[in-house]
């Protein structure tokens, strides 16, 4: 589950990570009030107005602006709030900005120069270990750094039995070319950051940039946090951090019916039980010359109501030109799936999209009889190869 920058910073701060302070605002008036409070509490005469969306590269799209006074805060916040922010991670459609973070200016003058770093904590699935990935080249796209200067990216593997060790935190600070108070503060920063990542069951903590201020303090200027959905049962308070406005409405609707659904850009809707079979189904659609319109796993305990909900969700996509239902009845009964398809078809009526149904396993014969006697205009298939041929046929119509 993705969360906003201001929410990620709040989590980091609760674990002792120093962050760039800020106040979230949903209106221009709230943004101005936030700037006034930052000036009073932190003596921050300049502030940064930052769009809050679930995507990186906000600055490149015009979603991060420096404001030198309250008039500029009003202007910048007014321009950003409500805009359709397009970044390399949003796609061409962009995302609407409903909130901004008014943050303190931390690039203040001092005895030494400021310096930006990149630090993230994530899981290396191949090795089964968490890693701290870091670089001296903060403030840039890490993909760009990896492509053009890979020698500037370092990785520290963490043994899950013992966690991040003090010598590893010191090694990170050393590789970042720090010394003195900045070195000590970076050791504390990395230690607290890893503790936050581990304790919250997260799948990603990405801080870009991590800033060394001119007075040698280390703090998080940004925070991209991804909480592992599978660990949310241990953190019920995190459920309130979910922002449904940032998610695809269809995917939100699917989650209410306990469906694993991801919208894609193709023309063939898929309804399958089991993630592995769903991937195989998407492959045969590609081989048949089509493009999957979605990933949809109804699960092993699907019933008529679940299938009905899945059917309705697929048909909401105007790009869908055909639907392939591919069910292997192990735990789930094929006749229940067939009944769900029939119920959805009869309820919606006037469905002009061809439907290919492949049902194998428990009660497959009963399921076939239900569909054959329903009067539905569907194409039946037994083998995966046959299903692929059917897809090719209906797309050619």
Automatic annotation (TrEMBL):
<keyword id="KW-0067">ATP-binding</keyword>
<dbReference type="GO" id="GO:0006099">
    <property type="term" value="P:tricarboxylic acid cycle"/>
</dbReference>
<protein>
    <recommendedName>
        <fullName>Succinate--CoA ligase [ADP-forming] subunit beta</fullName>
        <ecNumber>6.2.1.5</ecNumber>
    </recommendedName>
</protein>
<dbReference type="InterPro" id="IPR017866">
    <property type="entry name" value="Succ-CoA_synthase_bsu_CS"/>
</dbReference>
<feature type="domain" description="ATP-citrate synthase/succinyl-CoA ligase C-terminal">
    <location>
        <begin position="271"/>
        <end position="389"/>
    </location>
</feature>
<keyword id="KW-0816">Tricarboxylic acid cycle</keyword>
<dbReference type="InterPro" id="IPR005809">
    <property type="entry name" value="Succ_CoA_ligase-like_bsu"/>
</dbReference>
<dbReference type="GO" id="GO:0005524">
    <property type="term" value="F:ATP binding"/>
</dbReference>
<comment type="function">
    <text>Succinyl-CoA synthetase functions in the citric acid cycle (TCA), coupling the hydrolysis of succinyl-CoA to the synthesis of either ATP or GTP and thus represents the only step of substrate-level phosphorylation in the TCA. The beta subunit provides nucleotide specificity of the enzyme and binds the substrate succinate, while the binding sites for coenzyme A and phosphate are found in the alpha subunit.</text>
</comment>
<keyword id="KW-0436">Ligase</keyword>
<dbReference type="InterPro" id="IPR013650">
    <property type="entry name" value="ATP-grasp_succ-CoA_synth-type"/>
</dbReference>
<feature type="binding site">
    <location>
        <position position="222"/>
    </location>
    <ligand>
        <name>Mg(2+)</name>
    </ligand>
</feature>
<comment type="similarity">
    <text>Belongs to the succinate/malate CoA ligase beta subunit family.</text>
</comment>
<dbReference type="InterPro" id="IPR013815">
    <property type="entry name" value="ATP_grasp_subdomain_1"/>
</dbReference>
<dbReference type="GO" id="GO:0000287">
    <property type="term" value="F:magnesium ion binding"/>
</dbReference>
<dbReference type="GO" id="GO:0004776">
    <property type="term" value="F:succinate-CoA ligase (GDP-forming) activity"/>
</dbReference>
<keyword id="KW-0479">Metal-binding</keyword>
<dbReference type="Pfam" id="PF08442">
    <property type="entry name" value="ATP-grasp_2"/>
</dbReference>
<comment type="subunit">
    <text>Heterotetramer of two alpha and two beta subunits.</text>
</comment>
<keyword id="KW-0547">Nucleotide-binding</keyword>
<feature type="binding site">
    <location>
        <position position="50"/>
    </location>
    <ligand>
        <name>ATP</name>
    </ligand>
</feature>
<dbReference type="GO" id="GO:0005829">
    <property type="term" value="C:cytosol"/>
</dbReference>
<feature type="binding site">
    <location>
        <begin position="57"/>
        <end position="59"/>
    </location>
    <ligand>
        <name>ATP</name>
    </ligand>
</feature>
<feature type="binding site">
    <location>
        <position position="106"/>
    </location>
    <ligand>
        <name>ATP</name>
    </ligand>
</feature>
<keyword id="KW-0460">Magnesium</keyword>
<dbReference type="Pfam" id="PF00549">
    <property type="entry name" value="Ligase_CoA"/>
</dbReference>
<feature type="binding site">
    <location>
        <position position="273"/>
    </location>
    <ligand>
        <name>substrate</name>
    </ligand>
</feature>
<feature type="binding site">
    <location>
        <position position="116"/>
    </location>
    <ligand>
        <name>ATP</name>
    </ligand>
</feature>
<dbReference type="GO" id="GO:0004775">
    <property type="term" value="F:succinate-CoA ligase (ADP-forming) activity"/>
</dbReference>
<dbReference type="InterPro" id="IPR016102">
    <property type="entry name" value="Succinyl-CoA_synth-like"/>
</dbReference>
<comment type="pathway">
    <text>Carbohydrate metabolism; tricarboxylic acid cycle; succinate from succinyl-CoA (ligase route): step 1/1.</text>
</comment>
<feature type="binding site">
    <location>
        <position position="208"/>
    </location>
    <ligand>
        <name>Mg(2+)</name>
    </ligand>
</feature>
<dbReference type="InterPro" id="IPR005811">
    <property type="entry name" value="SUCC_ACL_C"/>
</dbReference>
<dbReference type="GO" id="GO:0042709">
    <property type="term" value="C:succinate-CoA ligase complex"/>
</dbReference>
<dbReference type="GO" id="GO:0006104">
    <property type="term" value="P:succinyl-CoA metabolic process"/>
</dbReference>
<feature type="binding site">
    <location>
        <begin position="330"/>
        <end position="332"/>
    </location>
    <ligand>
        <name>substrate</name>
    </ligand>
</feature>
<feature type="domain" description="ATP-grasp fold succinyl-CoA synthetase-type">
    <location>
        <begin position="2"/>
        <end position="210"/>
    </location>
</feature>
